[in-house]
Amino acid sequence: MRRVLHVDMDAFFAAVEERRHPDLKNKPVVIGGSGDPTRRGVVSTANYAAREFGIRSAMPLMTAYKLCPHAVFLAVDMEEYARVSEVFKKVLREFSPVMEDVGIDEAFLDLSGIDKPSEQIAREIKERIKAVTGLSCSIGIAANKLLAKIASDMQKPDGLTIIADGDVEGRIWPLPVRKLWGVGPKTEAYLKGLPVNTIGELASVPLEELVGHFGTSYGHYLYDASRGLDESPLVTHWEPKSISRETTFQKDSDHWQTIAGNLARLTGEAVTELKERGYRGKSVTVKIRFNDFKTQTRATTLDDPADNLEIIRKAAFHCLGKFDLKKKVRLVGVRIGGLIKL
What we know:
This protein is an alpha+beta fold.
């Protein structure tokens, strides 16, 4: 029988900072941007004390500050978070060679070939991670990735939830439809208009109706997911589809040199990563977000896959020239796609 375990570190960035700075314990802590809530940036992670004030990931730092002015705001230290991430993932590999790395703070393990009870494995993993990192994690175990991921979120923090056969109707169906992997705010809002608010209500919608609303592929996905069905394998190796960089200006700008200078810098950073990872790119896309939050992209295809800075930068500026820059710009970004491994 297939068994999949999902590990999700609890408020990971904030937890790492609390471990480094014990005086932060029990204080609301917000990690994001440069750590200055008067400057532009978004919340990467908030600890549970900060979440009690309504602070959430991806929220503007300025909004978080208004909700909790006395919170401790810290800059993102991605180098340290990546180091700790590798430490806890090394622990996971000790338990199973089949691991899917899905983010800096989470991963899936295939337990199917391990001759131990699920709860025992989970508790051993939690104890080992606590011992080597000082951090807690939440674990979900089920027959597939979809249910395991939902389960890991059901008893946070420091949770352990096992979804057994026959539990879908009683434990999954009452949950909000947003808890389904792949259902974002737009889909959630659309479903509410049907009206569908819970996973169980979604499961009652006929397949033909879902296909009519969402198309064949996504309609079938929602139909299966609402029933807890998921045959997707653990992906132990993947190739990137693109390499990108973007920056948000601290002050909206219509100064061409400022926009162009940042685009040149971002393109250089992206090309450096492209070379380091041994790829060439076939397409270049530039993204502009204006001060009214409207976002536009312009793309071009190269004659041949390239990793040459001059060629890719020239393509990026060709894309920039296709924008009508009459409004002030909030964000600029560049993406190199169509990657081919050297």
